[in-house]
Design brief:
Radius of gyration of chain B: 35 Å
Distance between the termini of chain B: 50 Å
Mean pLDDT of chain A: 84
Helix content of chain A: 40-55%
Number of strands of chain A: 9
CATH architecture of the largest domain in chain A: 3-Layer(aba) Sandwich
Distance between the termini of chain A: 54 Å
Low-confidence stretches of chain B: 75-93
Mean pLDDT of chain B: 75
Number of domains of chain A: 3
CATH superfamily of the largest domain in chain B: von Willebrand factor, type A domain
Structural class of chain B: alpha/beta
Number of strands of chain B: 8
CATH architecture of the largest domain in chain B: 3-Layer(aba) Sandwich
CATH topology of the largest domain in chain B: Rossmann fold
Number of helices of chain B: 21
CATH topology of the largest domain in chain A: Rossmann fold
Number of domains of chain B: 3
Shape of chain B: elongated
Helix content of chain B: 55-70%
Shape of chain A: elongated
Order of helices and strands of chain B: HHHHHHHHHHHHHEHEEHEEHHHEHEHEH
Largest sheet of chain A: 5 strands, parallel
Strand content of chain A: 5-15%
Strand order of the largest sheet of chain A: 2-5-8-1-9
Oligomer: heterodimer
Number of helices of chain A: 14
CATH superfamily of the largest domain in chain A: P-loop containing nucleotide triphosphate hydrolases
Structural class of chain A: alpha/beta
CATH class of the largest domain in chain B: Alpha Beta
Largest sheet of chain B: 6 strands, mixed
Radius of gyration of chain A: 27 Å
């Protein structure tokens, strides 16, 4: 197996900087995980609440390494025909039809049935060769010569059976195809699995992965993220809005706003030419941050105190 | 350092973080890749291989900090000296350090002076332990403590009562007894060097005591808990004191969760419904397009329904508490569980379990349904409430001692349930020998059960329920 070397991943600091240049501000922990994943050739299981940048991590890494990103979205009922490979049945049928006469010609000289079978055997398994193989995401990732980033998204949505299917790929980077044999990866892909914790992942799968939990970011980190994603928002508003989102996360909500929502909200405030957080403005744009009606109602009631809190927090901070 | 890492993993295991040998290898690899220089980096890296859930990560962080905390206090006996300390507060730090150094030097000088006419003390001063104490070699002392700890098997510490014993043994292994003897000898002659030597001895003792304390926290905490859990799960339920209720609750929750994951709904290929044309065609290709096997579009999820009925009358009060606890946890985890409680009459209590925290719910159920037992009447109530819902997917679990106060057992209702349900299970807290004695109707009810068992501790409960769920598929 060829091992691709990426100078971008030489050290934890280099990774941090590289990610930042593509607008992904990562914590030290995330950078360490990527570094270890590359050094130890291990897949990373990324867990965390929705919207903290799990999928984005893989995307940015693909950009950074300039390799293709191959994505496999998991869902209930996903099977190997859709994840690994499938035979091109249509093509196989077509070819047998076309080659019928050709075969007749070839077998003309044969004296007996056994003779013609022996003759046919000389050609090997023509119809079960790589030409007739339709690679699906997992096999495709193995076939990339320059390495790839393989993202297996929301693995918790798939069935238990599918997890077992992943085990061979994740530990040895190879796939067994009965008709052909074992296909080894041309170059080890960087593998990321994401999970939203809707169910427990089996221990066998966990054991093979590095485990990375991405929590909601700290105020400081989130401000940097907003700065890099929405650079036009001015400093004061950025501090206020991040502070407000953080105080929202303290409330007992059905779904707390994640980073992606913070960014969306910053963008919408920018579009509305907001200079600082005003109660009326927040009230009307709250649906960007919160996705459940009951959450919005609960927040409406406490909006004033929340705004006051985030304002005083910021006045103390500098 | 590697053996250090392995020790650390041992400790993690005792704190219920499951670390496999393969993960140990990964951890060693991580440590060599990252190096030992940056502590935070190493911690994050190890956490990724060793801790697999956020809860485990929290435990990991705690253990990591405790284990790799290797700061030893200053051994130069001068620090605690009154006048020096006061001066240190007023004068600049550098000056104070110089003074402290001077003070230590005078102390050593005093010792050496005394040693000249005391051969005992002289030989003591030449021992490596005393040498490193005098020169305040913290690294060497730490090393010496570590070695001594290994020698006396400190990693075996289990109970807090062993702390004193281990401290003594470590001190002995380090050669502290020589200091001790010399101190006694000096006391007899009232030498001026006595207080100095005493101070060195006390500092050393304090350090070792602290070291043992930390080791106990690290190693014994997990072991004690495991020990407790083990004992609790084997004790007869009626003997468990009320104060352990919350511990048992945790145990039961864990158990119920384990059972639920092992027996979660299973998909099953259907034999009818809509034909999956593409798949059928594809699978037919090897047979030249003849569709030998048919495949169907739908898969069916098995949705086992569980009806649990619990006796809460006086005769089983001690058990009922735990059985209700078990029901509560089960309902928490499995999707379709309906719970009922009865003594003289029966009612559904699922709503209590959904709405209230466990202790409150149990209290409410006991209050509402506690009293004298009447199985016949309760079965009537049950039939009214739930008989129509019992079908071939239903498992009925009855928890009770079947002591009916010589009333009418209404066996025909049990028979009815038996015929409709997939499974009827009776768990009886009384031992099998007592079944059928006195007013117990167990033997008669048994005839209308698919399975009946004696169940009076958590281990049995787990085993039985596991069996039930396995066979219910």
């Amino acid at each position: 197996m060829h091992i691709q070397d990426f100078p971008q991943l030489a050290s934890v600091e280099a990774i941090e900087q590289g990610f930042e240049s593509y607008g992904y501000i990562c914590s030290r922990k995330i950078a360490t995980a990527v570094f270890l994943a590359f050094q130890l050739r291990k897949p990373v299981l990324v867990e965390g609440p929705p919207g903290v940048g799990k999928t984005e991590l893989a995307k940015t890494l693909a950009q950074l390494l300039d390799t293709p990103l191959i994505r496999l979205q998991c869902y209930e009922g996903l099977d190997e025909a859709k994840a690994l490979y499938e035979w091109k049945y249509g093509k196989q049928l077509l070819y047998t039809q076309i080659l019928k006469e050709k075969l007749g010609d070839l077998l003309q000289g044969a004296q007996s049935l056994a003779d013609s079978v022996a003759k046919l055997h000389q050609f090997g398994d023509i119809f079960y060769s790589e030409e007739f193989l339709e690679p699906r995401p997992l096999l495709k990732a193995m076939q990339q010569e320059k390495g790839a980033v393989l993202l297996i998204d929301e693995v918790d949505k798939s069935d238990y059976e599918f997890e077992s299917l992943l085990l061979e790929i994740l530990s040895d980077y190879q796939i067994s195809i009965p008709e052909i044999g074992t296909v080894k990866a041309l170059s080890t892909p960087m593998v990321f699995l994401t999970s939203n914790n809707t169910r427990d992942i089996s221990d066998a799968l966990k054991r093979r992965c590095l485990h990375l939990y991405i929590p909601f970011p700290t105020v400081e980190l989130e401000e940097r993220i907003v700065l890099s994603r929405v650079p036009d928002v001015d400093d004061q508003l950025r501090q206020q809005l991040v502070g407000f989102v953080h105080s929202l996360r303290q409330l007992d909500l059905k779904k707390a706003p994640a980073i992606s929502e913070t960014i969306d909200w910053a963008r919408s405030l920018l579009l509305l030419h907001a200079q600082h957080l005003e109660e009326e403005m927040v009230r009307s744009t709250l649906n960007v941050l919160l996705k459940y009606e009951e959450d919005i109602e609960a927040t409406h009631a406490e909006l004033r105190t929340l705004l006051k809190d985030s304002a005083t927090d910021n006045s103390q901070a500098p | 350092m590697q053996s250090n890492l392995v020790n650390f993993i041992q400790i993690l295991r005792s704190h219920e973080v499951r670390v496999s040998p393969a993960e140990t290898l990964d951890a060693v690899e991580v440590a060599t890749t990252l190096g030992y220089a940056d502590r935070g980096l190493l911690r994050d890296g190890l956490a990724m291989t060793l801790a697999k859930t956020p809860e485990e990560e929290a435990i990991f962080m705690l253990c990591f900090d405790r284990y790799f905390q290797q700061s030893l206090a200053d051994f130069s006996a001068s620090e605690e000296q009154g006048p020096t300390a006061e001066e240190a507060n007023t004068s600049p730090a550098e000056n104070a350090a110089q003074q402290a150094h001077d003070f230590a030097a005078t102390q050593i000088a005093a010792l050496q002076l005394a040693a000249e006419d005391n051969p005992n003390l002289r030989s003591l001063l030449e021992t490596p332990l005393m040498q490193s104490l005098l020169s305040n070699e913290r690294n060497e002392l730490t090393l010496a403590i570590n070695q001594a700890a290994e020698q006396v098997g400190l990693q075996e510490i289990k109970m807090f009562t062993q702390k004193g014993q281990f401290t003594r043994r470590i001190l002995d292994a380090m050669g502290e007894d020589q200091i001790r003897n010399t101190v006694i000898a000096l006391e007899q002659v009232a030498s001026p060097a006595l207080p100095v030597l005493q101070r060195y001895r006390d500092t050393l003792r304090e350090q070792v005591r602290g070291y043992v304390e930390r080791a106990h926290l690290l190693r014994a905490e997990g072991k004690t808990r495991q020990f407790m859990d083990e004992i609790l799960s084997k004790t007869r339920l009626n003997n468990i004191e009320h104060i352990y209720l919350h511990k048992v609750h945790e145990l039961i929750r864990k158990m119920a969760k384990k059972l639920a994951t092992r027996h979660s709904r299973k998909r099953k290929l259907l034999k009818r419904g809509r034909l999956d044309m593409p798949k059928t065609l594809r699978k037919g290709i090897p047979h030249d397009g003849v569709m030998f096997n048919t495949y169907w579009r739908q898969t069916r999820k098995e949705k086992p329904q569980i009806l649990a009925v619990c006796d809460v009358s006086g005769s089983v009060a001690a058990y009922a508490k735990f059985l209700l606890l078990f029901l509560y946890s089960l309902q928490d985890i499995l999707p379709k569980v309906r719970s009922f409680a009865f003594s003289s009459h029966l009612g559904e209590v699922s709503a209590y379990f959904d709405d209230y925290p466990v202790e409150k719910a149990i209290e409410l159920v006991n209050w509402k349904y506690g009293g004298a037992t009447d199985y016949g009447n309760s079965l009537l109530d049950f039939a009214k409430l739930a008989l129509d819902d019992i079908n071939s997917n239903t498992t009925v679990i009855i928890l009770g001692d079947a002591r009916n106060n010589n009333g009418d057992p209404k066996l025909e209702i049990m028979q009815h349930i038996y015929q409709r349900a997939r499974q009827v299970i009776w768990l009886n807290p009384e031992s099998r020998r007592a079944w059928g004695s006195g007013d117990s109707e167990m033997l008669r009810y048994q005839s209308a059960c698919h399975f009946s068992a004696e169940c009076n501790n958590l281990k049995q409960l787990e085993r039985i329920v596991d069996q039930i769920l396995k066979s219910s598929r």
